[in-house]
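Revision sheet: structure tokens.
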Amino acid sequence: MLICRDALRVSECLGSSILRREKTDHRAGVMNGTLIAGTPIAVDFWNIRKAGQARLFFLSHMHSDHTVGLSSTWNQPVYCSPVTGQILHLRLKVAKQWIRPLEVGDSHVVALDEIGRKTMTVTLIDANHCPGSVMFLFEGYFGAILYTGDFRYNANMQQNPVLKNSKLINLLYLDNTNCHPEIILPSQEQATEQIKKLIRDHPDHQVKIGTYNLGKESLLVELAQEFHTWIVVSPQKLELMQLLEIEDVFTSEEGAGWIHAVDFSEICKETITIWNQNHPTIAILPTSRPRKSLENFDLQVENYLKRGRVSIGTE
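Predicted:
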């Protein structure tokens, strides 16, 4: 994550292609949270013992690298989008009494102290990353702070009423995972068409799509509609799809469909080999992150999806 402390306009921030790239740690169990200095604000930070003066805890989205330390024992208010709040209760069993859902697109006044003498305004902005994901715009005595969290930029963001105005941002926390001039990503629509072509080119194959616990839902729905098949998922993922009220194209019944959404970690040389022993199978990883488990394996690398590379592995 890039931190910029110079005053600049939002459109200059999100539209830039020359920001310096820094390493983001995506290892399991590694927290991608922030304590905003000089404020009581913590974003995606769930270690109370290290939280210092923080008393306002915000959750940008429900990917596991942003919830490290958050569990059913949490006993502080958590501010998040309504969708994230639902998933937080379902997945991590955080009590509903601690979940403070804030509508996306609206500005909300939040007390900075226990008696409400000092307040700030926080506005949630759709981050275009996964269901419920948001950016936070904080405004108060500290100026204006924009925390993007993980987000997928598109030009339409600059037309958002909150981001379109001439307001100056004093402090910017920017997800710049793929912000590098040498990384050129197609649109989500273009990448989805690439995946459809890969599947059409392998008409007698089963298809495994590697996903995280949240995300790629729109891709899976499009594939179900395009190829007229159920998307087979785990019972846990099916429960999540039903909670999100996503189109009814998912099932946990093995054999009901030939496209399977599997955990990202399952896409490796060993499992691809086993799948192909039973039935010709292709595996697609919609990600930009290189997979060590697929190194030196017979692999076609096609292009990028969203923030990522579409990889297809066959035996």
